[in-house]
# Entry
Amino acid sequence: MDTKPPLPVSRADRAKTILSRLVALVIFAAAIWAIRHLVDEIDFGEVMHLVRGTPPHIVAIAFVSMLGSYCAMTGYDWSALRYLGKTLPLRVSMAGAFLGFAIAANIGGGPVASGAVRYRIYAPYGLSLRHIASIAAFGSIAFGLGMTVIGTGALAIHPRALSMMTSFSPEIIRWTSITVFLVCVFGVGALAVFRARITFRKITIRAPSLGLVSAQLVITAVDFLLAAATLYLLLPSNDIGVLPFLAVFTAAVTVSVISHVPGGVGVFEMMILASIPANIPLESAAAGLLLFRVIYYFAPFIIALVTLSIIEIVRMRRRSRPQG
# Structure
C-alpha cells in the first residue's frame, strides 16, 4: 500500500512552535514565582477551614451558574453548524460541545483536544474531520472575540480595574480599550455585512452573516458572564464592582489562554490574587479560587469523562450485537 510522505515542516513553523512554547514557559514560570511569594503569606489550614465553612447555598448557586455557563457553551457548536450548513440532533451537538470544552479545558490542547473529543461524537453522524476542525476553530475564534469585546468594554468604563497589574495610566488603558472595542465591533460587523472572504495560506474563510455573528456574541456574553459570576459568588464580600471584576476576570482568562497551561492552573490564580484589594485576606481569596477550580473545572471534567465512557460502552455493545 502506498503511503504519502509527511509534509515537510518549514523553519518558520518550527520557530513559531519553539517561540510559543518559550512564551508559555516564561508565563508559567512567572506565575509560579509570583504564587510562591504569595503562598508564604497564606495559612493553608485557614484556607481549608474557610472552604469547609462556605455556606452551602453559595456553593449551590455557584454550581448552577457553572451549569449555565456550560449550557451556553453548547451554543458555539450550534453557531458553527449553521455556519457550515450542517444539522445535527440538538442532544448530539450539546453533548459534543460540552464534552469537548470540559475535557480540553482541563488537559489543554485547545481546538486540537476539543476537536478529538468532538470527533468521537460527531463522526458517526457523517461529519468529516474538516467539518469538526472547523467547528473547534469557530468556537475558539468566537470565544476570543467575545472575551475581547466584553473585557475592553468593561475596561473602557473602569480603567482602574487593572491598576494593580500594570503601570499604564487609566487614561491610556481607557482609550486603548475603546479603540480595540470599536475595531472588533465595527470590523467584524463590516465583514459580516459584506460577507467578506479572507484567504490565508490558500485557505479561504467566508465571514458569517450579521445575524449569526450577533447571536454568537450573545452566546459568548452569557457564557462569560456566568463563568465570572461563578467566581464572584465564591470570593469573599468586597467592594469590587461587577464591571471592574469583569475586566480583571477577562485579563486573567486571557493570560491563562496565552500561557497554554492546561486550565490556566497557577496563572489564573496569580492574576486574580494580584488584583484583589489589600483589605481582603489572602486566605479568603484563595479559598474562593480553590472552590472555583473544583466547581468550574474539576466537576465538569468528571461529568464529561463519565459521560464519554458511557457513550463508548453503549457503542461497543451495539457493535457486538449479532446482526439480523
